[in-house]
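Expect chain and fold; thus:
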Amino acid sequence: MSKNIKYLLVSLPTSISKTNDHDEALTALRSTVTTDYGSVFPFEIPEFKIGTLDALVQQADELTKLESGCEAVVGKIGDSLKGILDGNENAVSQQKTVNDKPAEQYLKSFHWNKVKYRADKPIGELISTLQKEVTSIDNQIREKYNSYNQVKTNLATLQRKQTGNLSNKSLTSVVDPSLIIQNSDYLETHLIAVPKTLTKDFIKTYETISPMVVPGSAFQVAMDDEFALYTVTTFKKHSQEFTHKCRESKWTPRDFKFQEGGREEERQEIEKAEKDQKKVWGEALRLGRTAWSEAVMAWVHVLTLRVFVETVLRYGLPLQFVCGLVRTTGKLVKKARASLDVSYSYLGGNAFGRDKKGRVTKDDSATSADMQAAGHVGDGGEYSAYVCYEFEIQ
């Protein structure tokens, strides 16, 4: 999927052509944008059931919010795919398809899904259907991605126990059970991980840091690059005080209980965790691919509805308009819009003021906020005298 590609969905009355012809209007739009700034493709919008003016105004507001939500969901799914594929942008890009085709191909050949979203249904009902669908997609991908992170974390924890240092790794394969006093009513064996830089101090002081430490009971069990592991025997009634004093001395008491067959059990546990992660990884990847496709399709359908509603509000009835998809780039999108502004700013009539260069402008901040919400204002805060929505599928 190409980066830095921007799209504009532009709706204009067919009156921009002298003959009021749809095809000639599309040709006029192409001439306005020119190949210097982008490419224009026809974008089909069916005729929907039009309700009252008040309903259309409310639906325009609902579609603005829903479109923003769709964009957010598509972005979140993309982030989930990136997490599943360890940030491999090429691999992520391969998963971002719409019905197994590039998103751009879907846009260029877009047809309203009349089976899934019947055009003869009221616009309010279509908005509700799309809202529920997008929410469901969002919930599904979040739940599956959380499950994947959980099994991934579980495996990492188990692996860390095998590969860490003596202060945190599993001691099942390190400690000989014969070194541990078991089934004694009075004595207890402690395993203490001591930083190698503190071993001399440990040997000198371990017998006196708490009462009733068995003299000479320290025995070095193992050593790695950072720690030495010792056993020390104390009377049980002072065990808690001994371990507390160890921590104060920056020695790490290790919990260890001998279990018959413990090594094999740990091996099987890691093996199961690896299988679980592989299984959930595959499920999350498949769901992410499907969810991204469905979310993009829902988003484009919402955009289509948004263009239609705004077209009715802006140009009135009877409906005579042409819609084009402008493919441009991040660098050229402003020039493409500027060219459109020059040619079609007259559509704003007296509702729009103009600066010395003829660009549509207005200073009233309250009006500006209302117009922004309704889609009349671009990202740069300038008024658009025609229906135009800018978007980017990443």
